[in-house]
Known about the structure:
The chain has one domain: FAD/NAD(P)-binding domain. A hairpin with a 4-residue loop joins strand 4 (85-89) and strand 5. It is built from 3 helices and 6 strands; from the N terminus they run E-H-E-H-H-E-E-E-E. Helices cover 27% and strands 27% of the residues. The protein is globular and about 50 Å long. By secondary structure, the chain is an alpha/beta fold. The strands form 2 sheets. Strands 1-2-3 form a 3-stranded parallel beta sheet. A 3-stranded antiparallel beta sheet has the order 4-5-6, with no helix packed on it. The chain starts with 6 loop residues before the first strand and ends with a strand. The site of flavin-adenine dinucleotide has 17 residues, from helix 1, strand 2 and helix 2.
Amino acid sequence: MNTSHDRLVVVGAGLAGLRAAETARLAGFTGSITLVGAEELPPYDRPPLSESVLAVGVKTTVQTFRTVEQLSRKLGVEFLGGRQATALQFARRTLELDERESLC
Ligand SMILES: Cc1cc2nc3c(=O)[nH]c(=O)nc-3n(C[C@H](O)[C@H](O)[C@H](O)COP(=O)(O)OP(=O)(O)OC[C@H]3O[C@@H](n4cnc5c(N)ncnc54)[C@H](O)[C@@H]3O)c2cc1C
């Protein structure tokens, strides 16, 4: 893995986004990692949600794969929840959030 860049921003805080961040760390990336998600929650397990709809009477709580604190402490990942990535300026290496703020 090329580790010459010191910042990784992952858009989409689902399972794939989480695995991307974890894999970057496993591969030796030591720069900062930001995980941007449109939902307020950190990555959570979706299949039990549909199972609870099919199985009458089964109560389901949303199970996150990692808490915001675990993301930060164990993976060194900053989680930006409730934020929508709205544009990518590739040449300028900036990502626009919510049509107003830019991450470099
Ligand atoms: C209710 C439900 C039940 C399911 N049940 C099963 C099952 O029983 N078995 C099974 O195999 N699979 C199931 N799935 C599918 C499984 O959950 C998906 O395969 C898995 O979630 C895919 O993960 P992902 O990270 O690729 O995408 P997603 O889980 O879709 O995550 C993508 C995330 O990116 C965010 N995002 C997208 N665009 C932006 C943006 N521009 N800016 C910021 N954030 C953005 C979205 O809000 C979302 O949180 C289910 C899915 C749902 C919704």
